[in-house]
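User: what does the whole thing look like in 3D?
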Amino acid sequence: MDIQELVRSLQGKNSSKIVLLIADGLGGLPIEPGGPTELEAAKTPNLDRLAKMGVLGSMIPIKPGITPGSGPGHLGLFGYDPLKYVIGRGVLEATGIGFEIGPRDVAIRCNFATLNPDGTIEDRRAGRIPTKESAPLAIKLRQVRIPGVEILVEPVEEHRFAVIFRGEGLAGNVGDTDPQKTGVPPLEPVATEPGSRRTAEIAREFLAQAAKILAGQPKANGLTMRGFSVKPALPSYEEVYGLKAAAIAAYPMYKGLARLVGMEIVGQPKSLDEEIDVLEKAWGDYDFFFVHFKYTDSRGEDGNFAEKVKMIEKFDSIVPRVEALKPTVLVVTGDHSTPAALASHSWHPVPVLLWAATCRPDACQTFGETEAIRGGLGHFEAVYLMPLALAHAGRLGKFGA
Amino acid sequence: MDIQELVRSLQGKNSSKIVLLIADGLGGLPIEPGGPTELEAAKTPNLDRLAKMGVLGSMIPIKPGITPGSGPGHLGLFGYDPLKYVIGRGVLEATGIGFEIGPRDVAIRCNFATLNPDGTIEDRRAGRIPTKESAPLAIKLRQVRIPGVEILVEPVEEHRFAVIFRGEGLAGNVGDTDPQKTGVPPLEPVATEPGSRRTAEIAREFLAQAAKILAGQPKANGLTMRGFSVKPALPSYEEVYGLKAAAIAAYPMYKGLARLVGMEIVGQPKSLDEEIDVLEKAWGDYDFFFVHFKYTDSRGEDGNFAEKVKMIEKFDSIVPRVEALKPTVLVVTGDHSTPAALASHSWHPVPVLLWAATCRPDACQTFGETEAIRGGLGHFEAVYLMPLALAHAGRLGKFGA
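Assistant: Here's the predicted 3D structure for the full assembly of 802 residues, as structure tokens:
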């Protein structure tokens, strides 16, 4: 029995409300010896006040040393073991552009490629063709017709696009056609188990028709398909936690990930302030609210320490509006670290702040990575965050008599 | 998927260099109430300076409460789950004397024993016969001849020696012949699975011939065989981590353990200073260096607090030479604790120091057990040390998109 199964067996309902306030890529690193991290450098009077009253911890997103992508990072936060539940690359690509994957869908990440006259690959990314050229080509591929299956083609960015086959009896166990090198032709799509044979046949037919449509294109005269995958069988928040859950996010990827675990996507906020507007309006309708702020990660990815600090200060500024709603449990953290010093996601732990009337306050006085090391929640893996939130909300019964 | 499989799927190569500097049995205990441990009592200016710049943690060698032997202790350090990968006692005995176990070998720990005239065991250890008497007897056993199999006999110490059967179709699933009590005859070697039947037959023939050779000896007129085992199927450092790894150690046991995970044994150093000489010379040729210092453990085993302190100070003194090589990641720790107060290995956690440009410094100011408790790496099991080292070296890709 893993922790989620245990929680599932113990959960009960009450009128509590839980808010999970996520600053994406929150954790950071100093940019000078002995200096503060972004969070430590930021003026965060509201989070510091909560840190004094609440309890902190140092959260390991996946396992020590492992840097999460957005998919596994959020699955962990949501309480789903990211090593057990894997979101396929095709599904993640489609999710990232806001495409809602259905139960009859197989999603595929595709690359436009440049083929030589002999059919071998000259460039696996079609010279990173700009989106304004590639998007119309992707849309042109919607002309493909295959009996018994609906074909959906969605532009993504530059050479990337997504294809979704929708129909009965499809499966995702088909090998990539990208040979991962140039000078050889793309691979044939091959089923790796009998149940995916029809999907592989459809892919071959798609590629044949697409070849005709793309013929004569200077750069994007071919394509490769990768990450064939179906919607993962994730039990819902309602099933696992007994929570009616709302997701409030501006970016399609995070809405999509929340939808995969059965959260309802609420509102169409374009900014953090608008997200809190949505939260206030939806307050009466849900038990659980996942609120996602993207720009802490974005500025970290940019390698811009000062701007990430500003984004954290922005994030801090909306905290009183959340507090005013009187949540039973308020959890503030990130899905992973994105230190400006590395300009990328990283493996470093993420500080967690949990406030609830039932929490046991520790000695921590401010919200920051160094302070969180001595927090009362200790060092723990992300999959334990939801159990902790539920417990503090009085939603978990006793295990055993 | 366990952590090692995950790491294996994410590892990539770069030009980084990782040093794992091991003071065997590093962790200790105070010898008076409120007093320091050996490490805390030692003057370690170099390790303290690194502790300020780096990040500490408190490492659990196997699981809380479990005292490791050298085999499991090092397997854990090397990132191999010691509960999954078991090194047989025979292989460990042979490894400890520097015998290189091959793929066609079955290794067996043997004891000389004193038998009564009726064949029952009078003394399971032949009166702890001194090595100078037992070693020639072990060598005499090399006279045993069995068709189709090569017999190797190696003296160890006092009543102990090792036998290796080398040939095709051998296996290690044979029961011990030591009945673990006196007044009864030794057991027959019995195969516990069909594939080991031939090995059991060879063992019976070995025992029959050995009985004749030992007949008339006053103490060592018999022998028992234990821990039949073959070389464990450990994936190599190159396979798992993509690392070309060097082991620099003075003691055969640690060279042998490193060899089992595919490290190359470099040099023939006799002292810690010579080990660092070897490290400097080999610096250009490997990605990873395991440097093993034995005497912290030895003085702990002796129960000599003051001498263990001196050994730790010796260990500290070579740190600047290692730093001068500019490793990307420098990890300093032990394989387990050997408190002088207990004069034995123990289950207590071992302090870890990790320095890298990518580490997130914590508030720790010195290198010691108490300080390590509040380290940024938290409390973690040894199998996570290699993933952390690889991450800080930039050798692990992102998990999921």
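In plain terms: The first helix of chain A runs from residue 3 to 10. Chain A touches chain B through 42 residues (CB under 8 Å).
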